[in-house]
Design brief:
This is Polyamine aminopropyltransferase. There is one protein chain. The protein contains 14 helices and twelve strands. The chain is an alpha/beta fold. The strands form two sheets. It has an eight-stranded mixed sheet with strand order 7-6-5-8-9-11-10-12. The protein has a four-stranded antiparallel sheet with strand order 1-2-3-4. Helix 9 links the parallel strand 5 and strand 6. Helix 1 runs antiparallel to helix 4, helix 3 packs parallel to helix 7 and helix 4 crosses helix 5.
Length: about 500
């Protein structure tokens, strides 16, 4: 965490009811807890904004820059509270617990029912940043009061030691919060419940410190009102936690437009299935439509058939495609001896095997003995000990390139690795995103494939949704075959001069 400047020591106040060493330890413990909670709020906003809005790099930049700016404002505003540091800190923590704890829930509600979460994201980043910025100056005042022996304040050396101790507790707390979010809170509790629980911990830590250790600094009236405020915050957080499942169900219905039959967070992504168990199915990954019953048959046929129609195709590699639909199309072609599916998410494959509607759609392809599944990141797997020229056809059925985490899977380096595993004259088919809706991203994919040494043909599936593809052959293998019937060539729409996307210069952000 980046902390604002500290105020000068304050001399006033009543001696705490414990020894100075114990009081100092308790304040530092609360610094640790508050820092952990503050970083969880930041990461929660970044994660949810990336999921709801997309482009994780932009969302992280917006949240962190706005929050650090707001922390400076909060540090300045905290000067007005130094004379009432105990009450001020308790109020700041109660507000931070309420706003930070409910931030994910409100952000999701804004996206689900208003269709726009950007303004809420900036507002929460500002509010949480101001409150986090106000913590450190007030805690500096409180730790000096807790550490004081008698009525005298410490000298410059004591003040320097206090600053070092406070920063150490703050940074270690940030480390714990940063690790707890992805490894404990997110997989065990989910984004909404995790944020609400963090808010409750924040409220208890701040309120308990002030109402016990610094109770002599406040009047009985102030103590009563602080107790009521903290209990109210905890009651709101507890009520929201009890209702979070109902809220998620209602929000999902608002987002997906029909009842949600399956909704699971696999550890890699959120997978949602809508539609009847034995009828048309829609599959959403992190809120983005991937499969849409009947129309999706046309999509995967357009991806696979042009690459399989001419030339050897006994050995096929499918990158992504855990839903089994690309593999289904591959196995419809005679002469296929083996299909290797490299999928990052085991949860997606389990659902494709077990869900009746999705299994029926993919033709129970995972029961075919010719199919082998490898659970790995496609980029890392291609860099591993994969034999050169091991496959006749490579099918890239990966998330759209406009999603920031997928940018490396549409890079020049990635296609260079794919070229290494292709046999002489082998074909590469790539799902490259919408041609019309995101034309820059689509044509950047095509330019990147050409920069990796392929010759290409660009085409799309007719109708909606808008799906674009690229068929490629290594330059030594000549020109790619015509995509064939059922698709529309878009070669005449290619813009000139688009640079390729690389690992160090991704070019898909829109």
């Amino acid at each position: 965490m980046i902390d604002p400047p500290l105020p000068a020591p304050v001399q006033g106040g009543v001696r705490p009811p414990v020894r100075p060493g114990a009081g100092r330890f308790l304040v530092l413990l609360v610094v640790f807890v508050c820092a952990a909670c503050g970083l969880v709020y930041e990461l929660e906003l970044v994660a949810l904004a990336s999921y709801l809005i997309g482009d994780s790099v932009t969302q992280a930049s917006v949240v962190l820059s706005v929050m650090v700016f707001a922390m400076g404002i909060g540090s300045l505003l905290a000067k007005r509270l130094r004379c009432h540091a105990a009450v001020g800190f308790a109020l700041v923590e109660a507000a931070l617990a309420l706003i930070g704890g409910c931030s994910a829930l409100v952000l999701y509600a804004a996206f689900a029912w208003l269709g726009e979460a950007r303004h809420a994201l900036v507002a929460f980043s500002l509010a949480i940043g101001v409150l986090i910025g106000a913590e450190i100056p007030l805690l500096m005042t409180l730790i000096q009061r807790a550490s004081r022996r008698g009525g005298a304040g410490g000298g410059d050396e004591d003040a320097a030691g206090t600053v070092a101790d406070l920063f150490a507790a703050d940074y270690v707390g940030a480390l714990v919060g940063g690790l707890a979010f992805p490894f404990l809170l997110l997989p065990w509790l989910g984004q909404l419940t995790g944020a609400l629980l963090t808010g409750a911990v924040n409220a208890v830590a701040g309120g308990a410190l002030v109402l016990w250790l610094f109770r002599r600094d406040m009047s009985a009236r102030s103590r009563w009102w602080l107790l009521v405020a903290n209990l109210t915050v905890l009651a709101v957080l507890a009520t929201a936690t009890a209702l979070v499942d109902d809220f998620e169900s209602a929000a999902r219905r608002a987002v997906y437009g029909e009842p949600v039959r399956v909704a699971v967070r696999t550890g890699v992504q959120e997978v949602v299935l809508t539609g009847a168990e034995h009828g048309p199915v829609k599959l959403f990954l992190d809120g983005r439509l991937q499969v849409s019953g009947g129309p999706e048959d046309r999509h995967h046929r357009a991806l696979v058939d042009p690459a399989m129609r001419r030339g050897p195709h006994a050995r096929v590699l499918v990158l992504g495609g855990g839903d089994g639909l690309a593999a289904r199309e591959v196995l419809r072609h005679p002469g296929v001896r083996s299909v290797t599916v490299v999928e990052l998410d085991p949860g997606m494959v389990r659902l494709a095997r077990s869900d009746p509607a999705l299994s029926a759609l993919n033709g129970s392809v995972y029961r075919d003995p010719r199919l082998k599944v490898v659970y790995a990141d496609a980029f890392c797997w291609l860099r591993g000990p994969v034999p050169h020229h091991a496959y006749d056809v490579v099918i890239s059925d990966l998330p759209d390139p406009g999603v920031a985490p997928s940018a490396k899977l549409y890079s020049q380096e990635f296609y260079g690795l794919a070229a290494d595993v292709l046999a002489d004259g082998g074909r590469l088919a790539v799902h490259a995103g919408p041609v019309t809706a995101r034309s820059h991203a689509y044509w950047t994919v095509e330019a990147t494939i050409r920069a990796a040494g392929f010759t290409t043909r660009a085409y799309r599936a007719p109708g909606r949704p808008d799906r674009g593809f690229v068929l490629a052959v290594a330059a030594a293998g000549g020109a790619p075959p015509a995509p064939g019937p059922g698709v529309v060539g878009v070669e005449d729409e290619r813009p000139r001069g688009l640079p390729p996307s690389t690992l160090l210069r991704p070019r898909y952000a829109e």
